[in-house]
Amino acid sequence: MLREKYDSADKRISKQFVRAFEDGKDWRVVAKHDGVNYQTVYHQIHADELRYERLPRSETQSKSLDYMETDQIVTWLEEDPTVTLELLQARVKAEFDKNVSHTTIGNHLDCRLITLKNFHLIPFGMKNSNTKERRKYSVLKMFKLDRLEDCIYWTDERNLDLFFPRTMEQCTEDTRSCLQICYNRGRSRI
């Protein structure tokens, strides 16, 4: 089965329409002669730029950062370590004229200068000296009652986690980014 009309005109025919319009000739006659719809030619003439003259999306400026730009970002961070990724994103756009996301910048900086970590939530009074003293007093009282065998006490795993903060003692200093949360949710408390 033969095809009657093409949905879109090729580049050569599109140039003929635009050239006829720019020369002041009747572009409708050229469109009718080539078998192209009036509306198609009208949109091609009144478009800001022709579709065939646009660059493909893949040939535009590269979004990824190269080694020189990543080294420059590391230099910026060494000068001011309090800069956030959003501010770095704005500075990269201003300096290198590249629109990259803050996730991409974080991926390029990962294992070079900084490592992004999730927050480790700890109860509000976990490192408080008053809470540690109360915890120590409660554990000593519990052991004393156990030796006397006067009463039966019951503790579950969550209470033991509060009595013995082994997860907090095992990790070395500055290995987690801790964020304190309030007491109203989470594990049981003393």
Question: Could you walk me through the main structural features you see in this protein, from its secondary elements to its overall organization?
Answer:
This protein is mainly alpha-helical. It has helices spanning 11-22, 27-34, 38-45, 67-79, 85-96, 102-109, 129-148, 157-163, 166-170, and strands spanning 119-123, 177-181. The protein has a two-stranded parallel sheet with strand order 1-2. Helix 1 (11-22) packs antiparallel against helix 2 and helix 5 crosses helix 6. The chain is elongated and about 110 Å long. Mean pLDDT is 70; it is low at 157-172.
Layout of secondary structure:
Blueprint: H1 11-22, H2 27-34, H3 38-45, H4 67-79, H5 85-96, H6 102-109, E1 119-123, H7 129-148, H8 157-163, H9 166-170, E2 177-181
Parallel strand pairs: 1-2
Helix pairs in contact: 1-2, 5-6
InterPro entries: Homeodomain-like_sf
Order of helices and strands: HHHHHHEHHHE
> Ends: how far apart?
84 Å
The percent of residues in helical segments reads: 40-55%
Give the radius of gyration. Answer: 35 Å
Biggest β-sheet, characterized? 2 strands, parallel
Instruction: List low-pLDDT spans.
Output: 157-172
Mean pLDDT: 70
Number of folding domains?
A: 3
- Fraction in beta strands: 5-15%
Number of DSSP helices?
Answer: 9
Quick structural summary:
InterPro entries: Homeodomain-like_sf. This protein has helices at residues 11-22, 27-34, 38-45, 67-79, 85-96, 102-109, 129-148, 157-163, 166-170, and strands at 119-123, 177-181.
Salient structural properties:
Homeodomain-like_sf, 190 residues, 49% helix, two-stranded parallel sheet, elongated, mainly alpha
